[in-house]
Amino acid sequence: MPNLSSDLTPIINKRLNNLSASKIRAFDQKVSSIPGIIKLTIGEPDLNTPDHIKNAAIRDIQANDSHYAPQAGKPELLDAISNYLERKIGIHYDPTSEICATVGATGALNDVFMALLNPGDKILVPTPVWALYFQLIKLTGAIPIQIDTKKDNFILTPQHLRHVLDGRGKGAKAIILTNPSNPTGRVYPAEILKELAEVIKEYQIYSVTDEIYAELVYDTVKHHSLSEYIPDRNILISGVSKAYAMTGWRLGYIAGPKEIMQSICKINAFLVTAVTDNVQMAAVEALNNGHDDPKEAKKIYELRLQFMKTGLEKVGFEMATPQGAFYIFAKIPEQYGTDDEQFAFELAQKAQVGVTPGRYFGKGGEGYVRLSYASSNEQMQEALKRIINFVKNL
Asked: In CATH, what number does 66-289 get?
């Protein structure tokens, strides 16, 4: 195997030296070798992609659809996304100029950050949050300004946002908001979004919303988007991964004002040329004819949530009640203080249950762990039993 020439070793993108690999993935890999481990670490639905969606992809392959698609996406997909968003949030996005199909929501985030951010720019990131945001932002040379929302029950308030914009976040170019939240499962009420929109307008910044879990909102609440209140400055990111159990298909999308979407679509074309043909046609089927698929998934996830929440609270875990997605973000037992990493490691070693340390999700996550309940009922039942026994024997 060849070794890199010694005179080439220093010649890399120096920003990469300041980026760490995913701690979530690293911890998951670390505990995976433990015999008998039940992993509640990764946000991976245990459900299968519905058959009608798989069959749409098969039909497309059989029709020899194997040539380059338009760079922003097939017209059928862009129309499907436009119609879907109009049904869901009441905003019409022009499929010819205001929507772009991407390789997953992660690809969408990368496109948006690369199009918006210059070295030295600030972008506000309410935490705890999916940690990949920080790495993608830093890769552009921009600076993520973390906002700890723990004291506000994991919902960024307009007052807190204003305080940050007048202080350490002064001069920020944008804010990114995850709704529903990973890792907390919290959902922003309409009245809070309206007030946040007013602050965002006042300070003349972009907003970016990651709404990948929008279909997985439970019946006690309703999902709203910042695009409903500031469509002229919000960039909406979503996809089909979570709602339709299509994580491996890698299909996301971006919708926003055409002036910024021109730059975003240009970046996307540079990075991927176009999304895979049959994957796009599967997404068309999901968005056009899969209205009931997320409803069935939600019923399953909500039952698991109630089961896990009830059991965990009985042994002293505290949490902000999840209202969407498929995560519980629970405060660890007092005897561990805020050392969530040590708690998670001991839980894995001694009880064979894998959970994710909260500190991996940024400020506001320390002292908590994230549990994904996107696993089978049998695994959830056994995992809860092991967690309860572990805590009782501390």
From this structure: 3.40.640.10
| 0.85 exceeded by pTM | yes
Residue 383 pLDDT > 80: yes
The answer to whether the CB of 93 falls within 8 A of the CB of 99 is yes
SS3 9: coil
Contacts 24+ apart (CB under 8 A), 159-162: 161/124, 161/196, 161/199, 161/200, 162/199
Mean pLDDT of 291-305: 95
Mean pLDDT, rounded, for 148-170: 97
In the CATH scheme, what is the homologous superfamily, with its name and number, of domain 14-49+293-392? Aspartate Aminotransferase, domain 1 (3.90.1150.10)
Q: How far apart are CA 41 and CA 109, in angstroms?
A: 22
With a cut of 80, say whether residue 135 has pLDDT above it: yes
Residue pLDDT, tens place only, 17-55: 878 778 888 888 989 999 999 999 988 889 999 999 999
For the chain, where do the domains classified as CATH 3.40.640.10 start and end? 66-289
DSSP symbol at 375 = S
Dihedral sign, Cα of residue 316, residue 318, residue 323, residue 325: negative
CA distances to 70, 175, 191 from 216, rounded to whole Å, are 30, 23, 20
347, 39 contact by CB (below 8 A): no
